[in-house]
Amino acid sequence: MTAAPLAGIRVLEVGTMLAGPYATMMLADLGAEVTKLEPPGGDISRKVGDSYFASLNRGKRSICLDLASESGQRQLGALAAESHALLVNLKPSAIRRLGLTYDAVRHHNDRIVCVALTGFGLDNGDDPAFDYVVQAATGVAALTGDPAGPPTLPGYSSADNSTGLTAALGLLAQIVSGRGGQIDVSLRDVMLSQLNYHAAAYLDNGIEPQRRLHGAHSYYVPAQLFPTSAGYLALFITHDSFWRSFSKEAGITGYDTMAERTANRDDVLELVTSALLTDTALAWEARLRPLGVPAAAVRTLPEALDDTPEMVVRAGGHRLVASPIRVDGWTPDYRRPPRLGEHGGSGE
């Protein structure tokens, strides 16, 4: 077995709820030593439930500190002196007040990387910025749902998770550079970035994105959910070769090029819908996948987990989803989440 990819990397986390803890858990899964610096009451997510906390904090250490006190600041300095990075997700005013910026800790360690994960940016105020609020504010909710109905939200925390991954990337990039410094990542900016081709179409050509039935793609046709005789099927046809294989199996003729399918969207979708209603979603998946056509029956989360037992791991007494990053020759050591103050300080 090779060493863990991030063996020897020490990361401090002052994180709450999801975005920050998810970022550092991804690093911990890759072998970094991650230490949560928790207030006397602990990360608020401990109160949500043991499974919730474990899903974001396995494999970490916990030190309980009152960062508003002189003793807490002394211990923060000692920890920062021996760490490669500090990741914080709090309001900007709290980050500055508690001395958690690069300018505040650089005298302990000028090579430390400090990541501020906030709602709107370190210099853009303290407006509340939970995941759903940011999805509403950046156009994500307006693009989601039935066009005849109200805007809606995905069933999971897409802004928090995406921002956590982005923050982890920024942290590692600055460590690789060999320089210390401040990294600023916000939920708002990450979600706007992820609207990439929609934003480009508007900025370059003035095309405002539309909410489409069954989540249809703006450019590719057919690429959306379709009803079947039992269940829904996701079909995503981009290449003309995919269309040839699908249309032959479905008994559809014509519309051989992407340009034709896009120009005749409504007609194509009517033909595809009629064809798919002749069989079940699971049957279509079984028929189309051997042909190389991207298709999947809509599954519930329990069904998806049952289909992928290799993605379920144990960390202490918890069953959790494994890291999505697989490194040749190395297997993560999934350890239980820490008890509050288990590695220093005082708990509740």
How does the SSE layout of this entry go?
Blueprint: E1 10-14, H1 19-29, E2 33-38, H2 50-57, E3 61-64, H3 70-81, E4 85-88, H4 92-97, H5 102-105, E5 113-118, H6 131-137, H7 158-177, E6 181-186, H8 187-194, H9 196-205, E7 223-227, E8 232-236, H10 240-250, H11 258-263, H12 265-276, H13 281-288, E9 295-297, H14 301-307, E10 312-315, E11 318-321
Helix pairs in contact: 1-7, 7-8
GO molecular function: CoA-transferase activity
Pfam families: CoA_transf_3
Keywords: Transferase
Helix content: 25-40%
Largest sheet: 6 strands, parallel
Q: Which regions are unreliable across 5 or more consecutive residues at pLDDT < 50? A: none
| Total helical elements | 14
Report the sheet-strand fraction.
5-15%
CATH class of the largest domain: Alpha Beta
CATH superfamily of the largest domain: Crotonobetainyl-coa:carnitine coa-transferase, domain 1
Distance between the termini: 39 Å
What's the average pLDDT?
96
In angstroms, what is the radius of gyration? 24 Å
CATH structural fold name of the largest domain? Rossmann fold
Q: Helix/strand/pairing class, anyone?
A: alpha/beta
Order of helices and strands: EHEHEHEHHEHHEHHEEHHHHEHEE
**Secondary structure: number of strands:** 11
What is the annotated CATH architecture of the largest domain? 3-Layer(aba) Sandwich
The main sheet orders its strands as 3-2-1-4-5-6
What is the approximate shape? elongated
Number of domains: 2
